[in-house]
Amino acid sequence: MRDPEMNRSSVKTYAGGLLRYDVERHRVWFAGQRLHHGLTGALLTSVGICGLAAHRLTPRGGVECALIGTALMAHDWNDRTVWFRVGPQE
User: Fold this and answer.
1) Is residue 10 a contact partner of residue 17, using CB atoms and an 8 Å limit?
2) N or C terminus of the chain: which is more exposed, having fewer CB within 10 Å?
3) CA dist., res. 45 & res. 31, Å (int)
């Protein structure tokens, strides 16, 4: 399902359309999937915690990654119901 909003003049495409950025609404899509701060934050937090648990990240690096991820999730908390929803979204 294509989002007609992604064809607006304010949407810039990169990497052959794989990555799109709407300049007016400050929104990013990757392969047609809208990326939210919360989703990115959840991934960063997971990487930080798993990296610490597997001893692949230094304590400082793991904590920084987890804290940045937590801040991103807190910033986007109002949209938490759509973080993992499939599709382009509004």
Assistant:
1) no
2) N
3) 23
